[in-house]
Specification:
Length: 159
């Protein structure tokens, strides 16, 4: 798994509207909470994603984007976003290439369980500020990402 302090590289994936989106486009205007989830429309992934949605104001206050990634096709991501009124992009990583790159992948698990639930808080300098890897607490991902961003910004190393 990519660790805290590592520098990430750019990638492009389609969003829920099948538009190509680059990590760099988000980092050009703020920090990124990049969260991986196993499968759209499932109980745990809905809870995790809805918590990111519910903290919209807090992330905006810190100039931070929320970006979700799963192996689901754009069409399913669109349904997931529409059903839950998400205001952030959901990216489709069907071959789990980006999940593998970040280490959010289980080699021996089939189907949706192959993607680990993990969040990477990335600064505008492309460095990982924090890694949240918890499979059981759906709210810890957004909560800890905000804590990290607040500490980073208050520490004078923000944007």
């Amino acid at each position: 798994m990519i660790s805290k302090g590592a520098t990430v590289t750019d990638f492009t994936l389609p969003d829920q509207d099948d538009n190509p989106r680059r990590l760099g486009e988000f980092l050009a205007t703020g920090h990124v909470a990049l969260f991986f989830y196993p499968a759209a429309m499932t109980k745990g992934c809905t809870a995790q994603s809805c918590h990111f949605r519910d903290l919209m104001a807090e992330f905006r206050e810190l100039d931070a984007h929320r970006v979700g990634i799963s192996a689901d096709a754009p069409r399913k991501q669109k349904q997931f976003a529409h059903t839950n009124d998400f205001d952030f992009p959901l990216l489709s990583d069907p071959d789990r290439k980006i999940a593998r790159r970040f280490g959010a992948f289980r080699k021996l698990m089939p189907g949706p369980l192959a993607t680990k639930r993990a969040t990477f808080v990335i600064g505008t300098d492309w460095r990982v500020l924090d890694v949240i890897a918890n499979e059981f607490s759906m709210t810890i991902h957004a909560d800890q990402a905000l804590e990290t961003l607040r500490a980073h910004t208050q520490g004078g190393t923000g944007r």
